[in-house]
């Protein structure tokens, strides 16, 4: 790590660290934070000419303590007259974000699009942001390790910075701590950080947050992350050879959509993902035998995450290969038929309330059984603004999952985020996040370049070619108050 000073206009910026394992673009992103000069406008003089974004520091010969010179103009802020209309550019950045309707993008620090897209998807969960905003050293669990604490703080701070900024943010602190906690994300190839798997980043980050956000008091929800994302599965194991049966339960943070020649739609892939084979010891046979495992959903989360199992290990090439097959997914997902019998019974009354409420909005006659109570029912769409036209009965439930007394699951979910991958291998290509805003508008977060999208184009990211295709999708529960 080198320390240099940079002369820009009449200022001299002292003690700026250069991580020589990172491309110069990362250094330029640091200067952008300090000066407001976008990387593409920066002209930095070094031996042999101008510093290029992808240059090799070892060949440039920059020395510790050296003074560099930078030329370039910062982003201009239009100043309003003392008396007169107030322009958007003159508002505080937080108000600019509100007017714009979406928050900032993230600079790519060198093959970090897998991390950027994960952050943008998870940041769209307001209950997670609320829980993180209350996290502090004082509330830290005694058995939580230091790196997990640091990563939680870095996540909290990065979420906050993104929500307050209209300019792209360089996630240097988060990336540094992520690599410290999980060294696999720091792998190098020819001196450059390698592309990593977004699903692995998503899973590891949620696992860390699940450990750090556990409430210290037994009176509170013991696990915020599990309440928001955890799916309880009930499994039946059957050995055809011996006839013995057993059952087990487990909690996972995502469902798997398995892809084969027979799978054309998400629902089909989810069914395949809930059925499988495994080898385990048979007590009656006294040896290992093949068991059929059939699972069903026994409890539903506030946010349902699905991973498309697109990558597999190809022995011939000794690397991950990608299944490009098109698999359609809906804007509205109903998982009722994937649930256990007990859960289905719990869902029946809320589903009827939901049908009556939707029918009422369309001017249809509601069922006689529930018509007398219809005035007391309001649909709750996550926090009420995921779909702009729906009212929420859980507006006061911003922290973690809502109370069952106030909001009940229906088994119906609305799409709120899609993380896509473009390319033929998990070790290369490009990841992008597509996130639904509170206004109902969709935004594509392609690193530092957010852009509005049409909702009808979101479900076209289903694969079948070399274009961006869904890898991880996230749905938000549609609930009703009872």
Topology (SSEs and partners):
Layout lengths: L1 E7 L2 E8 L5 H12 L7 E4 L2 E2 L6 H4 L6 E5 L21 H8 L12 H10 L3 H8 L12 H19 L7 H10 L6 E2 L2 E2 L4 H15 L11 H6 L1 E8 L6 E8 L2 E4 L7 H8 L1 E8 L4 E13 L3 E7 L1 E4 L4 E4 L9 E3 L6 H21 L6 H4 L7 E3 L26 E15 L7 E7 L5 E5 L2 E5 L1 H4 L10 E12 L2
Parallel strand pairs: 1-5, 10-13
Antiparallel strand pairs: 1-2, 3-4, 3-5, 6-7, 8-9, 8-12, 11-12, 13-22, 14-15, 16-18, 17-22, 18-19, 18-22, 19-20, 20-21
Helix pairs in contact: 4-8, 6-7, 6-8
Helix content: 25-40%
| Oligomeric state of the chains present here | single chain
Give a quick account of the main beta sheet: strands, pairing sense, barrel closure. Answer: 9 strands, mixed
Number of strands: 22
Structural class: alpha+beta
Strand content: 25-35%
State mean pLDDT (0 to 100 scale).
84
Tally the helices: 13
Low-confidence blocks of residues:
368-404
Radius of gyration: 25 Å
Distance between the termini: 59 Å
Based on Cα principal axes, name the global outline.
Answer: globular
């Amino acid at each position: 790590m080198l320390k240099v000073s940079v002369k820009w206009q009449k200022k001299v910026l002292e003690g700026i660290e250069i991580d020589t394992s990172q491309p110069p673009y990362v250094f330029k992103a640091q200067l952008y934070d300090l000066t407001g000069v976008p990387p593409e406008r920066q002209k930095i003089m070094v031996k042999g000419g101008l510093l290029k974004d992808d240059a090799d520091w070892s060949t440039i010969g920059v020395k510790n303590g050296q003074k560099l010179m930078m030329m370039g103009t910062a982003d201009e802020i239009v100043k309003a007259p003392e008396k007169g209309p107030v322009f958007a550019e003159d508002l505080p950045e937080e108000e600019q974000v509100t007017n714009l309707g979406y928050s900032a993008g993230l600079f790519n620090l060198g093959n970090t699009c897998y991390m950027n897209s994960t952050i943008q998807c998870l940041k769209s969960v307001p209950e997670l942001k609320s829980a993180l905003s209350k996290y502090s050293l004082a509330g830290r669990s005694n058995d939580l390790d230091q790196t997990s604490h640091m990563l939680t703080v870095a996540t909290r701070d990065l979420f906050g910075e993104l929500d307050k900024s209209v300019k792209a943010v360089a996630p240097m602190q988060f990336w540094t701590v992520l690599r410290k906690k999980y060294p696999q994300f720091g792998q190098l190839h020819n001196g450059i950080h390698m592309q990593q798997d977004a699903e692995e980043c998503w899973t590891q980050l949620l696992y860390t947050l699940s450990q750090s956000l556990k409430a210290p008091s037994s009176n509170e929800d013991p696990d915020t992350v599990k309440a928001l994302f955890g799916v309880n599965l009930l499994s039946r194991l059957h050995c055809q050879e011996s006839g013995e049966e057993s059952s087990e339960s487990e909690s996972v943070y995502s469902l798997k959509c398995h892809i084969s020649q027979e799978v054309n739609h998400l629902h089909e892939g989810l069914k395949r993902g809930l059925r499988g084979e495994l080898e385990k010891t048979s007590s009656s046979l006294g040896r290992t035998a093949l068991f059929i495992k059939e699972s069903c959903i026994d409890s539903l989360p506030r946010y349902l995450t699905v991973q498309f199992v697109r990558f597999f290990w190809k022995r011939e090439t000794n690397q991950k290969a990608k299944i490009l097959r098109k698999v359609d997914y809906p804007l509205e997902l109903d998982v009722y038929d994937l649930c256990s019998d007990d859960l289905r019974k719990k869902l029946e009354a809320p589903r009827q309330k939901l049908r009556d409420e939707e029918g009422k909005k369309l001017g249809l006659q509601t069922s006689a059984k529930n018509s007398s109570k219809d005035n007391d029912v309001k649909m709750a769409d996550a926090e009420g603004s995921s779909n702009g036209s729906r009212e929420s009965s859980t507006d006061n439930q911003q922290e973690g999952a809502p109370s069952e007394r106030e909001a009940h699951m229906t088994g119906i979910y609305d799409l709120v985020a899609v993380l896509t991958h473009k390319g033929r291998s998990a070790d290369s290509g490009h990841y992008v996040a597509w996130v639904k805003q509170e206004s109902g508008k969709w935004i594509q977060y392609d690193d530092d370049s957010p852009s509005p999208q049409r909702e009808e184009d979101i479900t076209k990211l289903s694969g079948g070619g070399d274009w961006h295709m869904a890898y991880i999708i996230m749905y938000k529960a549609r609930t009703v108050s009872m």
